Amino acid sequence: MPVTVAGSVVAGLLGAAVVVGAARTWLIRAFRIQERDPRLAAPGGSETAPEGVAARVPTRRNRTLAARVFLPHPGRPVAVVVHGWGAGGADMLVLTEPLRRAGFNAVIFDARAHGASDDESFASLPRFAEDTEAVMDWLAARGLGPVALIGHSVGAGAVLLVASRRPEVAAVVALSPFSHPRPIMNTWLAAHGIRWRPVQDALNRLVELSIGHRFDTIAPVNTIKAITAPVLIVHGTADQTVPPWHAEAVAAARPDVPLMRLPGVGHDDTPGFTRHLDAVLGWLKGVVPG
After folding, report:
1. What is the pLDDT of residues 163-182, one digit of tens each?
2. Among 190, 218, 246, where does a domain finish?
3. Closest CA to 282 of 157, 159, 99, 152
4. How far is the C-alpha of 152 from the C-alpha of 167, rounded, in Å?
5. CATH number for the domain including 233?
6. What stretches pass through the bilayer (predicted)?
């Protein structure tokens, strides 16, 4: 190969590497969690008190998670509650009293790079799932269970992924799940002025390489097919962040899975979801033994 041609190839490869590196840096910075709520790390309380007790749970890469543990019912099932992207466990504390009334214990935690948990290079659905499994392992080491999983948004995708590979999960409630990461990413990219499909496809592939997983392997529309535990999908009809068609697609992938539609409820609509908690937890109580 002539020197000039070889030089051109090397220069092209270096240029491509620079572009890829810059794109990855931009994506990581764009998805950094800007605000954190440290409330789960607040001291005080006890496992049987209404405010629960703070705990640190070890997870992957030598990180720890801030958690709050509620064990008002010795020997009863434990609901592990997983928040959504950019939120925190504190946003899910509204579930603890309804769960107690329904006869469940609960653990609520901050995923890595959220709330009072340790920081990370980036957050992702697979890392949300790893953190959920870390909490499950922490509970199992203490003889606590069976475990049901409740997740919202990205947390919903995470609990579906966990249940697809952990048969000991007793039940799953997926609140406002998306069907597949690709349409969510494409919508986000379009909102940032990136609308040309080849560029979107390239950036999606870069995200896959960065998180170490293909979108198809973590997409709720696919993971739900491998779950043996009972699953309930819950979605607000007024959700504009993750439109209801996502939940319909996930439910269609498993015709035996019920889809509970919440009229007029949005995506991060805590009051709206709270109005329907009795029905949601009534379903959970009916399918979880113990």
Report:
1. 999 999 999 999 999 999 99
2. 218
3. 99
4. 21
5. 3.40.50.1820
6. none
